[in-house]
Write a structure and sequence with these properties.
The chain is an alpha/beta fold and about 375 residues long. The chain has two domains: about 260 residues, Rossmann fold; about 70 residues, Sandwich (Immunoglobulin-like), CATH 2.60.40. Helix content is about 20%, strand content about 30%. The chain is built from eight helices and 17 strands. The strands form three sheets. The protein has a ten-stranded mixed sheet with strand order 3-1-2-5-4-6-7-8-9-10, sandwiched between helices. It has a four-stranded antiparallel sheet with strand order 14-13-16-17. It has a three-stranded antiparallel sheet with strand order 11-12-15, with no helix packed on it. The longest helix is centred in the C-terminal third of the chain and has 21 residues. The radius of gyration is 21 Å and the shape is globular. The two termini are about 35 Å apart.
């Protein structure tokens, strides 16, 4: 934020609200129906601390299965993946078909297999999954996402970041896709020109609810981290900055995923506006009014850290200690998820208060 008041508020909260840490683990799925095909993945999940095999935060969490672009891998999207983990999603980056001669059909089948496995909750993983799953990807992986939709019986939603036409055709496959979809398209993308790739995939999709984000002067590679092989295709690009493109992508994608996988209000996504993007939607939405989720605290009681989910997004809050003194104030993030560092709090009952809502009890143990 540009305003001085926001800067001061961030400084005040630095000891109270912290971004969730990210645990990782390597995983190999084996698809026996394809002759024991191995599908390597990296699993990223909300954790107590950063690191391989780190202790997970209490779940379960919805899952995002993500596919890379041509001659790329999941490690090229660390910023995007970490942002999704911080929003309480488990992200499985599929690491197959990373070479110079990728098989798009096989990648689509890999995505479908992993998505169906994730919907089955994979009890062997160090983190808990619920049964809600979205499949998405960038460029080649975005096109393969539409191929995956014809094979996965468990996916709930699809998204593509500059999705590319594939062989077999993602555009042709889109005609059979009825799941909710979201397409991101940079208007200055010269690697997969929107008119030949993103827009036909979007137009051909038979979804009851589809949405498209057109990023003004957005690039093809700006969804990924700097320094990947993707950048070789845009050496002289001078449009939307990478930080801005990633900021918009995260904000809009998280709000859309929260609606599709957590039933958060559609307005959290569709209500976002700025001068450097436009939103196109074609949706038949339920007339049922959105019901704000009841806030949940886990773990509870807690010793040093806890997470509050289901806060009213963008609404201020206070944390009041056992003595009645205000320990912190802030504004709930757009996700409604607040990570709290309570290491310096006294033991006892604390209250988190938001205007118009019942105070939430936070119980810190004495150890």
């Amino acid at each position: 934020m540009k305003h001085a008041i926001w800067t001061a508020l961030c400084a005040l909260l630095v000891h109270t609200s912290v971004q969730g840490a990210e645990g990782t683990v390597e995983w190999v799925f084996v698809d026996e129906s394809r002759g024991g095909r191995e599908i390597p993945c990296n699993v990223h999940y909300p954790a107590e601390a950063d690191g391989v095999g780190a202790e997970p935060m209490p779940g379960p969490f919805p899952t995002v299965v993500f596919a890379h672009g041509f001659v790329m891998s999941g490690s090229d999207y660390a910023a995007l993946v970490s942002a999704l983990v911080a929003a309480d999603f488990v992200v499985l980056t599929v690491e197959s078909e990373t070479g110079l001669a990728p098989d798009h059909a096989e990648l689509g089948l890999d995505l479908a297999y992993v998505a169906d496995a994730a919907a089955g909750q994979i009890p062997q993983l160090p983190t808990q999954l619920d049964d809600r799953v979205a499949i998405g990807g960038h460029s080649m992986g975005g096109g393969a996402t539409w191929l995956a939709a014809s094979s996965s019986s468990q996916a709930d939603a699809l998204f593509g970041l500059a999705p590319a036409e594939t062989q077999p055709s993602a555009i042709a496959a889109a005609a059979e896709v009825t799941l909710p979809i979201l397409v991101f398209s940079g208007t200055a993308d010269a690697v997969t020109p929107p008119a030949d790739h993103h827009l036909p995939i979007y137009a051909a999709s038979a979804s009851a609810c589809k949405a498209r984000i057109d990023l003004t002067d957005g690039s093809h590679c700006g969804y990924a981290d700097a320094g990947s092989l993707c950048d070789l295709g845009e050496l002289f690009f001078n449009g939307m900055t990478r930080p801005r493109q990633q900021e918009l992508t995260v904000s809009l994608l998280v709000a859309w995923l929260n609606h599709q996988l957590r039933e958060a209000p559609w307005s959290d996504f569709d209500g976002q506006t700025a001068s450097d993007f436009t939103t196109t939607t074609d949706c038949v939405l339920s007339a049922r009014p959105a019901v704000a989720p009841e806030p949940v605290v886990a773990p509870q009681p807690f010793a040093e850290r806890t997470v509050v989910r289901g806060l009213a997004p963008g609404v201020g809050y206070q944390i009041i200690g056992p003595s009645g003194r205000t320990l912190a104030t802030g504004t709930a993030p757009p996700t409604g998820i607040l990570h709290l560092d309570a290491a310096t709090w006294p033991a006892g009952l604390h209250l988190l208060v938001q205007p118009g809502r019942t105070p939430l009890r936070l119980l810190k143990s004495s150890r």
